[in-house]
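Q: Start with the shorter request: fold the first protein.
A: Done. Sequence, then structure:
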Amino acid sequence: MGPGQFGVFIPILGLLIGGFVVFAKSEIGRALAHRIRGGEQTASGVDAELQALHGEIEALRSDLMETQERLDFTERMLASGRKES
């Protein structure tokens, strides 16, 4: 490889360095760097969000149970109406 052929790698190297800089400045790059440094996750924020999600799941379960009870009642009413006619 001659000395003139190394000039081809200069734009490629520039693109690689530029891409790395853009990635490093992004949110994903900062999060990855924080994780590599061994940074602590905000456990309190995650726990609070998890508790909120558990509360929403319980509310959805109770709503679903109520809806199922209403459906059962409606089915019984319709079935009893057909028998009387």
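Q: Next, the second protein, separately.
A: Sequence, then structure:
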Amino acid sequence: MQDGSEVREFMRREAISEATLAKRAGVSQSTVSRAIEGTGVRHGAARSKLFTYIQHRSAALPPKKGVQRVVTAFERIWDRTEEHAAVVARIIDALENLRPVATKRR
């Protein structure tokens, strides 16, 4: 589905602006805006480049179920203060290279 809702959803998930998306996708901000609004829609190279970028980045995103599991765990432990958020963020940052250990089947 190549329409404005796909672009809006991607921007929401990534928490980015039209200008940021345009820069990352290598298109103009007006291309992003036209894709969102569905106005002046041409199926040209810039529009194609935008949606190709969104599709490739979306494929690289973790599954929603996994994201929700992490968010739920975070919300369970966070006391809603800025100070605690900073501490939890540092802990998460420290886990950057942590990966599941593959177990051998016998």
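Q: Describe the second briefly.
A: Residues 45-60 form the longest helix (16 residues). The chain has two domains: 4-60, 62-106.
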